[in-house]
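Query structure, 189 tokens:
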């Protein structure tokens, strides 16, 4: 059972799965930041493309790349995490996968552990990036996040302009609200 509560001062760190200058998903993330409910800050984490591929050889306190350390710090400081991503070849883009890998370590104590996580995105196919979204959710769950399934929006961009369509934007804004308001069920003492 889940409990929905009104939250104030909630920060959602957003990981965008496309590095493209004109990325539709990036623009959607920016719209969600502009239209965030009162008390909710949607914080788009830039610089994912500058983070080296995850490699255990460079993941130690002495020489962890500054870009990866900054990612961990930014996500660690957030209350929630939202991936806004297209699909590449039936799965999530490598840049998002890499970010999740960095966030999954130290094992059992990564920045995603216990963090409510949701995923949305749009692609110009009938399924709207469904496989990428399923894979991102599974990967985040394995990294310790609490996946909030109700958040998921896999939006087809074939017949609508997802950046202006009121129904699409409403669905995505509701996804942000659902993630912001999510509270895990508490076990009665
Ligand atoms: C390498 C590559 C692989 C892709 N594979 C898929 C795919 O498997 N499924 C899908 O829905 N779209 C796929 N697409 C299309 C992307 O979803 C589309 O280009 C989308 O607009 C990219 O998102 P963006 O606008 O945020 O960059 C692929 C695009 C690229 C460049």
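Result returned for the query:
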């Amino acid at each position: 059972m889940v409990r929905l509560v009104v939250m104030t001062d909630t920060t959602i760190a957003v990981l965008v799965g496309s590095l493209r200058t004109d990325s539709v998903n990036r623009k959607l993330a920016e719209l969600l930041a502009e239209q965030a409910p009162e008390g909710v800050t949607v914080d788009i984490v830039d610089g994912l493309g500058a983070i080296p591929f995850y490699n255990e050889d460079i993941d130690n306190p002495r020489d962890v790349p500054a870009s990866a350390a900054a990612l961990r710090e930014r996500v660690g400081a957030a209350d929630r995490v939202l991936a806004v991503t297209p699909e590449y070849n039936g799965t999530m883009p490598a840049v998002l996968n890499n970010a999740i890998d960095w966030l999954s370590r130290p094992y059992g104590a990564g920045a995603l552990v216990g963090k409510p996580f949701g995923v949305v995105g749009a692609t110009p196919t009938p399924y709207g990036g469904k496989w990428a979204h399923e894979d991102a959710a599974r990967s985040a769950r394995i990294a310790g996040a609490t996946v909030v399934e109700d958040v998921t929006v896999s939006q087809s961009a074939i017949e609508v302009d997802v950046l202006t369509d009121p129904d699409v934007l409403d669905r995505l804004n509701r996804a942000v609200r659902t993630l912001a308001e999510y509270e895990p069920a508490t076990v009665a003492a």
